[in-house]
Design brief:
Helix 2 links the parallel strand 2 and strand 3. The chain starts with 8 loop residues before the first strand and ends in a 13-residue tail after the last helix. 46% of the residues lie in helices and 14% in strands. By secondary structure, the protein is an alpha/beta fold.
Length: 266
């Protein structure tokens, strides 16, 4: 992904601000033309003008709400038919944090629609084309809350846990191809998602808050180093290895045909 040839396009969702906007800048700096997808036309247009001028690339804005079927279908068509698309960054997402009893059903469904359904459909649209060309990169932005849940994050954590497991399964499916899938799990990052989530950015521990620039730069450095799973804020990479070893041991222990002795059934 470092030195693409001409006419290579990266499509970034949720690109009008935050993590998506930084990915747009960094991929443009690597020579990619861009298709930037988001809901806010003014911000998209400004970003396209900015990265085009700074990096001498072409940037196309597409205004779309990926929770709406007709908008999602337009992006699916691009991904499945445009042979110049080489990178898909599934960054678009929302959080609606709070106790379930105090949030509406629509809050839950909107998170599922964007964090799960849109990501899945866009990935599904591009994978056959990538396999056919035996190359392509999919970057799925999850969250550290994929492995941790709080009283206010039941739905959000659930959606990000889906992204984790979906990406892991897809990585195994594509292991013998030239298609790469990177899973990125940021911790608290300074984006607008917080002020819309119900937990304002100002309420977060500033010492634990990463800038969007540092997050994306770390994720891309991880990609360049061959990481399939990137934890931008985790210094001790062996922690993930230990987690994986424990998970594998737990799964292996389930593969028996009798109840556990502690249940005293037999």
């Amino acid at each position: 992904m470092t030195n693409p040839s001409s006419k290579k396009i990266a499509l970034v969702t949720g690109a009008s601000s935050g993590i998506g906007a930084v990915y747009a800048d960094r991929l443009a700096a690597r020579g990619y033309d861009l298709i930037l997808v988001a809901r806010r036309a003014d911000r998209l247009a400004a970003l396209c003008a900015q990265v085009s001028k700074a990096h001498g690339i072409k940037a196309e804005p597409i205004v779309a709400d990926l929770t709406k079927d007709e908008d999602l279908a337009r992006i699916e068509t691009i991904l499945s038919t445009n042979e110049d698309v080489r990178v898909l960054v599934n960054n678009a997402g929302i959080a609606r944090l709070g106790p379930l009893a105090q949030r509406s059903a629509n809050d839950a469904l909107s998170q599922i629609a964007l964090n799960i359904t849109a990501l899945t459909r866009l990935t599904q649209a591009v994978v056959p084309a990538f396999i056919g060309r035996n190359q392509g990169v999919i970057i799925n932005i999850a969250s550290v809350l994929a492995i941790h849940s709080m009283p206010i994050s039941a739905v959000y954590s659930g959606t990000k846990a889906f992204v984790l497991q979906y990406s892991r399964g897809l990585q195994q499916e594509l292991a013998e191809t030239g298609v790469k899938v990177q899973l990125v799990l940021p911790a608290s990052t300074a984006t607008e998602i917080w002020d819309l989530s119900g937990v304002p950015l100002a309420a977060l521990n500033k010492e634990a808050l990463m800038t969007t620039e540092h997050m994306v730069d770390a994720a891309l450095a991880g990609f360049d180093q061959g990481e399939t799973i990137t934890w931008p804020s985790v210094a001790d990479a062996s922690l993930w290895d230990k987690y994986e070893a424990a998970r594998s041991e737990l799964f292996a222990s389930t593969q028996v045909g009798t109840p556990a002795p502690r249940y005293n059934i037999l």
